[in-house]
Every structure is written in C-alpha cells, then in structure tokens.
Write a structure and sequence with these properties.
The chain is α+β, with helices and mostly antiparallel strands. It folds into five domains: 9-69, 434 Repressor (Amino-terminal Domain) (Orthogonal Bundle); 72-130; 135-301, no CATH class; 313-428, Beta-Lactamase (2-Layer Sandwich), CATH 3.30.450; 431-464, no CATH class. It is 43% helix and 12% strand. The protein is built from 18 helices and nine strands. The chain has a six-stranded mixed beta sheet with strand order 5-4-8-7-6-9. Strands 1-3-2 form a three-stranded mixed beta sheet. Strand 7 and strand 8 form a beta hairpin. Helix 17 crosses helix 18. The longest helix is centred in the first third of the chain and has 26 residues, at 105-130. Keywords: DNA-binding, Transcription, Transcription regulation. Residues 12-66 form the HTH cro/C1-type domain. InterPro entries: Cro/C1-type_HTH (IPR001387), HTH_RamB (IPR026281), IrrE_HExxH (IPR010359), Lambda_DNA-bd_dom_sf (IPR010982), ScfR_C (IPR018653), TransReg_Diox_bact_type (IPR050807). Pfam families: HTH_3 (PF01381), Peptidase_M78 (PF06114), ScfRs (PF09856).
Amino acid sequence: MSTRPLYLGPRLKRIRRELGLTQQAMADELGISPSYIALIERNQRPLTADLLLRLARAYKLDMADLASDERDDYARRLADALRDPIFADIDLPALEVSDVAASFPGVTEALLRLYGAWQREQQALAEQRSALPGPGASDPVGEARRFVAARRNYFPTIDSKAEELSGEIEKAGGPAEWLRLRSVRVRFLPPDVMMGAIRRYDRHNEQLLVDDTLSPSGRAWQLMQHIAYTVLRSEISGVIRGESFASDTAAQLVRRALAGYAAAALVMPYDRFARAVDARRYDLEALSGQFGASFEQVAHRLTTLNRPGQERVPFFFIRVDAAGNVSKRLDGAGFPFAAHGGGCPLWSVHECFRTPGEIVTQWLELPDGQRFFSLARTVTSGGGGFDRPRTTRAIALACAAEHAPRLVYAAGADPKAVQATPIGVTCRLCHRAQCTARAEPPIGREILPDDYRRGAEPFSFAES
C-alpha cells in the first residue's frame, strides 16, 4: 500500500462546494481551523488519515473513493490532453508531464479546464457549421462584417471622393438641386404611389422618387445614397475589385455597406466632421443638429474616423432590437463583442428600451479586466403615418475607458476610479460565476448538482 502523502486539494474543494459549505463551516464541523482547510485545498498540506476519517463520518462519504490519490489520474489526463495534434511540434517528455501533475496540481487543473473548454467550443462550432443548410452554405452577414472590420471600417478612396463631392453639393444648394443640375428631377411622393419603396430611381424619365413621409434627415440620406450608388460607383467597385465572396448575397451586403459609408461621408465629410467632433466633444445630438443627420447616422460615422494621422476616439457600434437580435455591428475599438456577442443583459443597450429617446451611459468591465465606456439610446425607423409600421431599435457606442474623458458624457470622470458593471461577451463565452442574469452555462464548464445547495445564480460551476 502506498505511504506517500495524499494531496487532495481540488477534490476537497469540490466536495465542499457541492455540499454548499464555506471553509469556516467545514472547519467547524471537522474541528480544525479555516486556514488549515485553505492550505489543504491549495495542496500545501496533505490530507491526514485522521482527517479522512472525520470527512467520511461527517458527510457520509465513501472512504475508498475519498482516499484514492488523484495524482496518477491527473498525470494521465494531462498526458492525454497533450497528445492532441495541436501540441505535436512540442517536445513533452512523459517524466516532465508526470512531474507537473504531481508538483503543480493547481496548474494542471487550470490546463485541463482550459483544454476541456477549447474542445467543447470546437465541437460546438463544428455542430453549428454542420447544421447550416446545403453543402456550400456560408454566413453572408458574417462575411460582410469581417470584410468591413478587416479594413477598420475606413475606405480612403471613398472618403476622399465624397469630401470633394460634398463641397460641390453644398455649393449647389443641396443634393436635390445638385441632382437637378445634372438633369435628375427629385420628387417626393406619398407611400401609395411609391408602392412600398422609400427610394426609387426612374431611369427612363430621369427621376428620383422618394417617400414624402420621411424625416428631413431621412430624405437627405436617400438622396445621398442615390449619389453614392451612381456618382461614387467606381470608387465602391474599386474597393471590392478582386475580392472573392462566398455568395452573391455577401457581395451585395458589402456593396450596400460601402454605399452607406459613402452616403455618410457625403453628409458628414471627414475633415469638417472631425473638427466638429472635437469642438462638440462627441455630443451626438449636437452633431446631429449641425449636420442634419439622424442620431444613428452620426453614431455610425463616428466608427469611421480612422484616417492615419487624423484618428479620433475608436468606437464599437451595435444595433439591436427588443428581442436582442443584432442587425448592425461595426468595430473600431477592439471590443470583443464585434466578433460575437452583444447579448449580455447587464449591458444598458438592452435596458434603454424602457427610456426611449434618452441617452443611457454605463462603465463596463469584461471578465479579463478590460474597461469600456458605453452610451446607448433607442432609435426609430418607419412610421410616417397612422397605419404605417414603426420599428424601435437600440444602438450603442462603446470606447476604451481611457478615451471616455474626451466625451461630453464622461467629462471629469476618472476611468480607474469609477465603478464598472461586470458584463460578459455572451453567456456561452463568459465564465463569471457570480451572475444572477446568466441564461446558460459557458462552453467548457460543467454545472454542479443542486441536491444540497441552490445558489442565487442560475448555475454553480464545477472546478473542471
């Protein structure tokens, strides 16, 4: 029989948590100090035979299972994990693996947990892909977002041409007059005549028809989009020339995004808008009034100010509906929500539906300690008549906390001293244990049974 000391720290901790006990409570029941329990759980003290007996009697545990040494099991599990092809080019002698498992059980536990999470995530991704319809199925929305993100949502040729063109349009007296000088008549017509369209170009009669129920900023935007699709056609085509997309839908979504970018650049030309941003300290409502643009258009434009040498605060932008569906996502701030997420209920973008039209600010802290500042507000589209459907969505802008004092919304704040709301990217990727708003457990974590203890949180997690 082996006489080597038993270091069963992780197992003792797991038993204690499953029983819903604090270190103090377990120590009182076993007649030892809480600090000694802590040392055992950190594998800095062995579990003595006397203490094993007390554990078995106090909690009616099987003595044989409790006393079995986990070091060999740790070594085996670690060796199995390290045989994964991802580690194939690393020299990992069996003796070193065994030494790590025996001498550093905490490190071993962390590595096994990380590897288990990675495996489960890979499996989940594989299942997600296999569930897509058709042999060549793709995600056109994701592909379009990645195309824009890879270029940091900045397209210099479009910006340069739009800036030049915006001067001509302003000099002519506005987009409608500019188009008239080019033999295109602009007409604002009622919805029944437009037959479901809000903008239509009649090429035969050289007429641009626009829904007359749109707001002034909405009308101007539709005129600028027409100019983008026609006059800036070559600049838009130049951006995507030579690119290969998985589907025509992805290509059309990219082209639509670039036309929207061009329209924003026409309404808010880079140099003039950037100067106004500095003067107004990123006050979106003030900028909206100055440029005759909607709140959402201004928010969108703020994500594009990435001209080398003339950059402004980098922002992440997201637009969601009341059900949490993300309909637009743009990143210039390195916010992990850009790749996935946006569904954390603790983020105020989901709360601002309760206060429509009001700007809600919030300091955020991600699980890795990164801090961001966010502002969110609802925006409305559609409507324009008694029986016309109206859609309300919420948009949010987020920037790194260190940039927040440059914004009028966080003037005078100390980003290091403010209390931030702990949020996660999405429940499936967030490993925060103390979260009462959690909807589902994260990938790679097993949940504890609630036979003995039911916590305030929806799930309690096992150690591995």
